[in-house]
């Protein structure tokens, strides 16, 4: 069932939702959270489709906030709220409210969303793109226990990671981090099987890919070894190599689907490591609502510190040579030749 409301209010939207549930014979609310999606018209369809797919695992009330930019000064002064309600089969396993904010109401979106939140249920705020620098300080972000972004959609993903680290607050997370969950699980399992000490690591993937940077920072933070970044044509993250004294542990995924795990003393094995869509990533993030301390530690490790640690081996190799040259005893200066005295 779909209901369109023009020039409406939050109280009218709530009343329409209650009546719609009665009309389709499902008055009871079985939703476990409220998912607030902050987006624009261009990305609203894809974001809502992913949220609906994720709602089959997490029944939720989905509130989509679409801020309509007004072109003329007069229309910018006129505040108006339009809503589209979807209940039943049209809303996945929950119910959907699409809010379109016009005029001055764009700057007060939190006052519209607050009455639509489910009572006594957690709130998750998701920015598919265009997220603010300070998520917890944003008026809509302050409503959520969990705040989800996607650094991959920004123009400068690596620089955005620095902004996320500077303004991090408990509850922040990113889908670029969620994308590497299978990689982290596979690498951790490989190290558990072999009692080998890792001396260095290499992460290979596309340039300006935040997932590659986050995986490299996670390895550097957890293993305390230099981690190098190597570039490839993708797709996404393609390979990770861990160097040990007994050989290399290599997890290689060249085609974006099936990966090969190579470990010293063991036959190569094929592992499923496919690239997941946004709905799967979102469903994974909705499974936990507590702060992700591992993400925080990896994010705050910093890309600049990662580059410095990767450059340290070359510096260490150059230092002994310079030190040996500096400590070498100075050769005695040649004595001047004695002057010959002419014979008398």
Automatic annotation (TrEMBL):
Domain of life: Bacteria
Disordered: region residues: 310-344
Name of one Pfam family that matches: OpcA_G6PD_C
Protein name: Glucose-6-phosphate dehydrogenase subunit
Signal peptide: none
Residue spans of biased composition, Low complexity class: 310-336
């Amino acid at each position: 069932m779909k209901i369109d409301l023009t020039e409406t209010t939050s109280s009218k939207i709530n009343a329409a939702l209650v009546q719609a549930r009665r009309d389709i014979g499902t008055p009871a609310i079985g939703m476990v959270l409220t998912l607030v999606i902050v987006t624009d018209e261009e990305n609203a369809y894809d974001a809502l489709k992913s949220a609906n797919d994720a709602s089959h695992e997490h029944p939720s009330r989905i509130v989509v906030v679409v801020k309509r930019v007004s072109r003329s000064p007069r229309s910018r002064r006129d505040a108006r709220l339009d809503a589209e309600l979807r209940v039943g089969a049209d809303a996945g396993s929950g119910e959907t409210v699409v809010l379109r904010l016009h005029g001055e109401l764009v700057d007060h979106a939190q006052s519209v969303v607050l009455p639509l939140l489910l009572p006594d249920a957690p709130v998750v705020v998701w920015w598919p793109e265009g997220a603010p620098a300070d998520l917890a300080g944003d008026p809509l972000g302050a409503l959520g226990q969990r705040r989800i972004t996607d650094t991959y959609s920004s123009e400068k993903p690596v620089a955005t990671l620095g902004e996320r680290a500077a303004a991090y607050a408990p509850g922040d997370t990113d889908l670029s981090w969620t994308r590497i969950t299978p990689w982290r699980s596979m690498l951790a399992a490989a190290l558990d099987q072999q009692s080998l000490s890792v001396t260095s690591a290499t992460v290979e993937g596309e340039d300006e890919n935040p997932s590659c940077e986050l995986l490299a920072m996670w390895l550097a933070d957890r293993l305390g070894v230099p981690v190098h970044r190597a570039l490839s044509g993708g797709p996404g993250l393609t390979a990770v190599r861990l160097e040990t004294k007994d050989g290399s542990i290599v997890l290689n995924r060249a085609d974006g689907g099936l990966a090969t795990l190579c470990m010293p003393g063991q036959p190569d094995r094929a592992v499923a490591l496919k690239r997941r869509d946004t709905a799967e990533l979102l469903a994974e993030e909705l499974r936990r609502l507590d702060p992700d301390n591992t993400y925080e530690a990896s994010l705050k490790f910093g890309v600049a510190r990662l580059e410095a640690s990767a450059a340290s081996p070359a510096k260490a190799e150059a230092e002994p040579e310079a030190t040996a040259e500096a400590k070498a005893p100075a050769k005695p200066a040649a004595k001047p030749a004695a002057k010959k005295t002419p014979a008398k």
